Inverse folding.
């Protein structure tokens, strides 16, 4: 009898990024930086865009959707300094979420290329 194998659900990276986008949308109030308008707007707008892109990616995968997340992740990492955000909670949140979104997108791009290489 063969041992059952564990496999992650299809598109788990998209679901994780979707949750990160949702987290960004609510994080100003949960982390207490909602009084800084620039940080709040950045979190909400970037979160909505991530959720929208991931919703599209769940229906039909295209590499360009993941490249949008690469750009959004990189933006989150640097936006605190570019926009002059002073709240440490916002800075930390943006860097951590940005690195996670960036890593998930790059992993998904790599995995898609690996899968297409195995099919030939």
């Amino acid at each position: 009898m063969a041992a059952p194998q564990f496999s992650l659900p299809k598109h788990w990276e998209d679901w994780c990024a979707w949750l990160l986008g949702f987290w960004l949308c609510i994080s100003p109030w949960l982390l207490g930086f909602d009084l800084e308008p620039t940080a709040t707007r950045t979190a909400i707008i970037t979160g909505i865009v991530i959720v929208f892109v991931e919703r599209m990616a769940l229906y039909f995968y295209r590499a360009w959707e993941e490249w949008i997340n690469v750009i959004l992740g990189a933006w989150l990492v640097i936006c605190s300094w570019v926009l002059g955000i002073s709240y440490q909670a916002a800075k930390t949140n943006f860097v951590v979420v940005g690195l996670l979104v960036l890593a998930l997108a790059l992993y998904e791009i790599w995995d898609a290329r690996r899968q297409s290489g195995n099919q030939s």
Notes: The helical segments are 12-31, 37-59, 63-83, 88-118. The chain has four helices and no strands. The chain has a mean pLDDT of 86. The longest helix spans residues 88-118.
